[in-house]
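Repro case for the chain-ordering regression, as requested:
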Amino acid sequence: AAGVIQSPRHLIKEKRETATLKCYPIPRHDTVYWYQQGPGQDPQFLISFYEKMQSDKGSIPDRFSAQQFSDYHSELNMSSLELGDSALYFCASRWRGSSSYNEQFFGPGTRLTVL
Amino acid sequence: QKEVEQDPGPLSVPEGAIVSLNCTYSNSAFQYFMWYRQYSRKGPELLMYTYSSGNKEDGRFTAQVDKSSKYISLFIRDSQPSDSATYLCAMSAVAGTALIFGKGTTLSVSS
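-- result from build under test --
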Protein backbone atom coordinates (compact mmCIF):
# COMPACT_ATOMS: atom_id res chain seq x y z
CA ALA A 1 0.00 0.00 0.00
CA ALA A 2 1.10 3.52 -0.72
CA GLY A 3 2.50 5.44 2.22
CA VAL A 4 3.26 9.03 3.07
CA ILE A 5 6.28 10.29 1.16
CA GLN A 6 8.61 12.93 2.54
CA SER A 7 11.51 14.63 0.87
CA PRO A 8 14.30 15.14 1.37
CA ARG A 9 15.04 12.41 3.90
CA HIS A 10 18.09 14.21 5.21
CA LEU A 11 18.97 17.88 5.13
CA ILE A 12 21.95 19.76 6.47
CA LYS A 13 21.80 23.54 6.72
CA GLU A 14 23.77 26.34 8.29
CA LYS A 15 22.35 28.72 10.89
CA ARG A 16 20.20 31.47 9.41
CA GLU A 17 19.61 29.53 6.20
CA THR A 18 16.20 28.45 4.92
CA ALA A 19 14.82 24.96 4.32
CA THR A 20 11.79 23.52 2.57
CA LEU A 21 10.39 20.13 3.51
CA LYS A 22 7.87 18.37 1.31
CA CYS A 23 5.14 15.89 2.13
CA TYR A 24 3.05 13.79 -0.24
CA PRO A 25 0.08 12.23 1.59
CA ILE A 26 -1.39 8.82 0.98
CA PRO A 27 -3.65 8.95 -2.12
CA ARG A 28 -7.20 10.11 -1.25
CA HIS A 29 -6.05 11.58 2.06
CA ASP A 30 -7.13 15.18 2.38
CA THR A 31 -5.60 16.19 5.71
CA VAL A 32 -1.93 16.71 6.43
CA TYR A 33 -0.23 17.20 9.80
CA TRP A 34 3.32 18.31 10.57
CA TYR A 35 5.13 17.18 13.73
CA GLN A 36 8.60 17.92 15.09
CA GLN A 37 10.47 15.31 17.12
CA GLY A 38 13.60 16.41 18.94
CA PRO A 39 16.23 13.89 20.10
CA GLY A 40 14.68 11.58 22.69
CA GLN A 41 11.44 13.53 22.61
CA ASP A 42 7.87 12.75 21.63
CA PRO A 43 6.49 14.26 18.43
CA GLN A 44 5.15 17.77 18.90
CA PHE A 45 2.38 19.05 16.65
CA LEU A 46 3.23 22.04 14.47
CA ILE A 47 0.39 22.66 12.04
CA SER A 48 -2.28 20.90 9.97
CA PHE A 49 -4.22 21.46 6.76
CA TYR A 50 -7.53 20.18 5.49
CA GLU A 51 -8.57 20.76 1.91
CA LYS A 52 -5.75 23.30 1.45
CA MET A 53 -6.84 25.41 4.41
CA GLN A 54 -5.01 25.59 7.73
CA SER A 55 -7.11 23.61 10.17
CA ASP A 56 -5.10 23.71 13.38
CA LYS A 57 -1.96 25.33 14.70
CA GLY A 58 0.36 24.09 17.40
CA SER A 59 3.79 25.14 18.58
CA ILE A 60 5.02 26.32 15.20
CA PRO A 61 7.54 29.18 15.37
CA ASP A 62 6.76 32.36 13.45
CA ARG A 63 9.86 31.63 11.35
CA PHE A 64 8.08 28.61 9.90
CA SER A 65 5.22 28.60 7.44
CA ALA A 66 3.40 25.87 5.60
CA GLN A 67 0.79 25.33 2.97
CA GLN A 68 -1.14 22.60 1.24
CA PHE A 69 -1.47 22.59 -2.53
CA SER A 70 -4.25 21.56 -4.88
CA ASP A 71 -2.78 18.05 -5.24
CA TYR A 72 -2.85 17.82 -1.40
CA HIS A 73 0.89 17.75 -1.00
CA SER A 74 2.24 20.08 1.66
CA GLU A 75 5.42 22.06 2.17
CA LEU A 76 6.94 23.30 5.41
CA ASN A 77 9.12 26.37 4.92
CA MET A 78 11.63 27.15 7.62
CA SER A 79 13.62 30.40 7.67
CA SER A 80 16.38 31.84 9.86
CA LEU A 81 17.25 28.35 11.00
CA GLU A 82 18.56 27.93 14.52
CA LEU A 83 20.56 25.11 16.09
CA GLY A 84 17.46 24.14 18.09
CA ASP A 85 15.56 23.42 14.88
CA SER A 86 17.63 20.26 14.41
CA ALA A 87 15.07 17.47 14.67
CA LEU A 88 13.07 14.88 12.82
CA TYR A 89 10.13 16.41 11.00
CA PHE A 90 7.23 14.11 10.34
CA CYS A 91 4.29 14.52 8.09
CA ALA A 92 1.14 12.51 8.73
CA SER A 93 -1.97 12.20 6.63
CA ARG A 94 -5.58 11.20 7.16
CA TRP A 95 -8.75 10.92 5.19
CA ARG A 96 -11.60 12.65 6.96
CA GLY A 97 -14.18 10.47 5.37
CA SER A 98 -12.58 7.20 6.46
CA SER A 99 -14.18 6.70 9.86
CA SER A 100 -14.88 8.31 13.17
CA TYR A 101 -11.41 7.42 14.31
CA ASN A 102 -8.53 9.87 14.25
CA GLU A 103 -5.88 7.56 12.84
CA GLN A 104 -3.00 9.43 11.28
CA PHE A 105 -0.42 7.71 9.13
CA PHE A 106 3.12 8.98 9.40
CA GLY A 107 5.83 9.34 6.80
CA PRO A 108 9.46 8.31 7.33
CA GLY A 109 10.45 11.83 8.34
CA THR A 110 13.03 14.39 7.28
CA ARG A 111 16.07 14.63 9.49
CA LEU A 112 17.16 18.27 9.62
CA THR A 113 20.57 19.12 11.00
CA VAL A 114 21.44 22.78 11.53
CA LEU A 115 25.14 23.51 11.92
CA GLN B 1 2.73 18.16 34.17
CA LYS B 2 2.40 16.72 30.68
CA GLU B 3 -1.08 15.82 29.47
CA VAL B 4 0.12 12.31 28.68
CA GLU B 5 2.56 10.41 30.88
CA GLN B 6 4.41 7.32 29.73
CA ASP B 7 7.23 5.47 31.45
CA PRO B 8 10.20 5.73 29.07
CA GLY B 9 11.71 2.45 30.23
CA PRO B 10 13.84 0.90 28.91
CA LEU B 11 11.95 -2.35 29.23
CA SER B 12 13.84 -5.58 28.57
CA VAL B 13 12.08 -8.94 28.25
CA PRO B 14 12.95 -12.40 26.93
CA GLU B 15 11.40 -13.68 23.74
CA GLY B 16 7.92 -15.09 24.31
CA ALA B 17 7.12 -12.87 27.28
CA ILE B 18 3.92 -10.86 27.64
CA VAL B 19 4.64 -7.16 27.56
CA SER B 20 2.47 -4.50 29.16
CA LEU B 21 2.88 -0.86 28.11
CA ASN B 22 0.89 1.90 29.76
CA CYS B 23 0.00 5.57 29.58
CA THR B 24 -1.94 7.84 31.87
CA TYR B 25 -3.52 11.10 30.87
CA SER B 26 -5.09 14.08 32.55
CA ASN B 27 -7.53 15.44 29.95
CA SER B 28 -10.89 13.73 30.43
CA ALA B 29 -11.96 14.96 26.99
CA PHE B 30 -9.61 12.54 25.24
CA GLN B 31 -11.57 9.83 23.46
CA TYR B 32 -9.38 8.72 20.55
CA PHE B 33 -6.45 6.56 21.58
CA MET B 34 -3.66 5.18 19.46
CA TRP B 35 -0.49 3.16 19.82
CA TYR B 36 2.41 3.70 17.46
CA ARG B 37 5.60 1.69 17.07
CA GLN B 38 8.73 3.56 16.09
CA TYR B 39 11.96 1.93 15.05
CA SER B 40 15.13 3.96 15.41
CA ARG B 41 15.23 6.91 13.01
CA LYS B 42 11.98 5.84 11.34
CA GLY B 43 8.47 7.27 11.27
CA PRO B 44 5.85 6.14 13.81
CA GLU B 45 3.85 3.17 12.53
CA LEU B 46 0.21 2.94 13.59
CA LEU B 47 -0.39 -0.29 15.53
CA MET B 48 -3.74 0.03 17.24
CA TYR B 49 -6.47 2.60 17.65
CA THR B 50 -9.52 2.65 19.89
CA TYR B 51 -12.37 5.00 20.47
CA SER B 52 -13.63 5.67 23.99
CA SER B 53 -13.38 2.81 26.48
CA GLY B 54 -12.99 -0.90 25.93
CA ASN B 55 -10.65 -3.47 24.48
CA LYS B 56 -9.45 -4.16 20.98
CA GLU B 57 -7.44 -7.14 19.84
CA ASP B 58 -5.37 -7.57 16.68
CA GLY B 59 -3.20 -10.65 16.50
CA ARG B 60 -0.66 -10.55 19.32
CA PHE B 61 -1.65 -7.02 20.30
CA THR B 62 -4.44 -5.95 22.66
CA ALA B 63 -5.28 -2.34 23.44
CA GLN B 64 -7.29 -1.41 26.51
CA VAL B 65 -8.78 1.92 27.49
CA ASP B 66 -10.10 2.72 30.97
CA LYS B 67 -11.50 6.24 30.77
CA SER B 68 -12.64 6.24 34.38
CA SER B 69 -9.01 5.83 35.47
CA LYS B 70 -7.58 7.82 32.52
CA TYR B 71 -5.34 4.87 31.76
CA ILE B 72 -4.57 3.02 28.55
CA SER B 73 -2.56 -0.13 27.96
CA LEU B 74 -1.03 -2.11 25.13
CA PHE B 75 -0.34 -5.79 25.65
CA ILE B 76 1.97 -7.75 23.40
CA ARG B 77 1.72 -11.53 23.63
CA ASP B 78 4.51 -13.91 22.60
CA SER B 79 6.92 -11.02 22.14
CA GLN B 80 9.50 -11.33 19.38
CA PRO B 81 12.91 -9.69 18.88
CA SER B 82 11.32 -7.80 15.96
CA ASP B 83 9.05 -6.10 18.51
CA SER B 84 12.08 -4.25 19.84
CA ALA B 85 11.24 -0.60 19.25
CA THR B 86 9.88 2.49 20.96
CA TYR B 87 6.13 2.41 21.59
CA LEU B 88 4.31 5.72 21.67
CA CYS B 89 0.81 6.26 22.94
CA ALA B 90 -1.13 9.11 21.35
CA MET B 91 -4.54 10.57 21.92
CA SER B 92 -6.90 13.39 21.05
CA ALA B 93 -10.26 14.75 22.06
CA VAL B 94 -11.74 15.41 18.63
CA ALA B 95 -11.41 13.45 15.39
CA GLY B 96 -9.09 15.16 12.96
CA THR B 97 -7.18 17.18 15.52
CA ALA B 98 -3.55 16.98 16.53
CA LEU B 99 -2.35 13.99 18.49
CA ILE B 100 -0.82 14.39 21.92
CA PHE B 101 1.93 11.86 22.38
CA GLY B 102 3.52 10.22 25.37
CA LYS B 103 7.32 10.20 25.52
CA GLY B 104 7.45 6.59 24.37
CA THR B 105 8.62 3.36 26.02
CA THR B 106 11.71 1.65 24.63
CA LEU B 107 11.24 -2.11 24.49
CA SER B 108 13.98 -4.66 23.93
CA VAL B 109 13.09 -8.32 23.35
CA SER B 110 16.03 -10.69 23.57
CA SER B 111 16.16 -14.06 21.84
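Ordering looks correct now. The mean pLDDT of chain B is 93.
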